[in-house]
Amino acid sequence: MATNITWHPSLSRSERAAYRGQRGLTLWFTGLSASGKSTVAVALEQHLLHLGVAAYRLDGDNVRFGLNKDLGFSDGDRAENIRRVAEVARLFADAAVVAIASFISPFRADRELARALHASHEHDADGPLPFVEVFVDVPLAVAEARDPKGLYRRARAGEVKHFTGIDSPYEPPENPDIVLRTDQASVEDCVAQVVRWLEDRGLIPAGKTPVADVPPAP
Ligand SMILES: Nc1ncnc2c1ncn2[C@@H]1O[C@H](COP(=O)(O)OP(=O)(O)OP(=O)(O)O)[C@@H](O)[C@H]1O
Ligand SMILES: [Mg+2]
């Protein structure tokens, strides 16, 4: 722990939100591998950008290519993986962006830590940031039948150890904010469900019209 450090105050979150014309928040997708977290998160990110709402996705494997490339899959490293991602999601939310985190995050304690980081933070004078737990809920049999990465097959064959749902537990959220049944609803319907939930609570502006044309990248 560094001791010779001093917090430097910055703009208030509401000032930042006013400049950006939107508030920040974190959507935390949790669910079994192949439940559809990444698929829905990608479609949601694109939909929000299309509506002119800044959004950015933080995703399981992707962060392990960079930020968390020093972490493995031991219990301690998994917890540190989630802690770091929760801190980064919080920074995006603090910057008035919709952070979309999609991680299996099988343990309640880790998800509660992520929520707690958004509820209060050292030196944070701006109060809690919205943290929305999205449970992507499908029966294990459905996820296993999808198996887009072949991981369930390898876990059943004993080639992948500690695989969630097979030889490592998944602790379902007790009180999720949103439940997506991707075995019953299409990707588009799941996206619409999340967007409606956010609009109903004033977390994103309601009735925004999509940007007509996507401008070319500068
Ligand atoms: N309604 C739906 N929503 C999302 N995914 C769906 C839906 N219907 C079918 N699928 C399929 O289910 C699979 C979900 O895979 P995806 O990679 O999104 O899961 P994941 O939860 O991100 O898994 P992991 O934790 O391994 O990253 C994809 O092959 C997708 O096409
Ligand atoms: Mg994924």
Identify the quaternary structure here: single chain
Mean pLDDT: 93
Biggest sheet: strands side by side, in what order? 2-3-1-4-5
Helical amount:
25-40%
Q: How far from one another are the termini?
A: 41 Å
Form type = globular
C-alpha-based Rg, rounded? 18 Å
According to CATH, what is the class of the domain at 20-140 and 171-200? Alpha Beta
CATH topology of the domain at 20-140 and 171-200: Rossmann fold
> Quick one: CATH superfamily of the domain at 20-140 and 171-200?
P-loop containing nucleotide triphosphate hydrolases
User: How many beta-strand segments?
Assistant: 5
Bound molecules: adenosine-5'-triphosphate, magnesium ion
Strand content: 5-15%
Biggest sheet layout = 5 strands, parallel
Architecture overview:
This protein has eight helices and five strands, in the order αβαβααβαβααβα. The protein is an alpha/beta fold and about 220 residues long. The longest helix has 20 residues, at about 75-95. Helices cover about 40% and strands about 10% of the residues. The protein has a domain at about 20-140 and about 170-200: Rossmann fold (3-Layer(aba) Sandwich). The protein has a five-stranded parallel sheet with strand order 2-3-1-4-5, with helices on both faces. Helix 2 (about 35-50) crosses helix 8 (about 185-200) and helix 4 packs parallel to helix 5 (about 110-120). Adenosine-5'-triphosphate (ATP) binds near residues 34, 38, 102, 187 and 190.
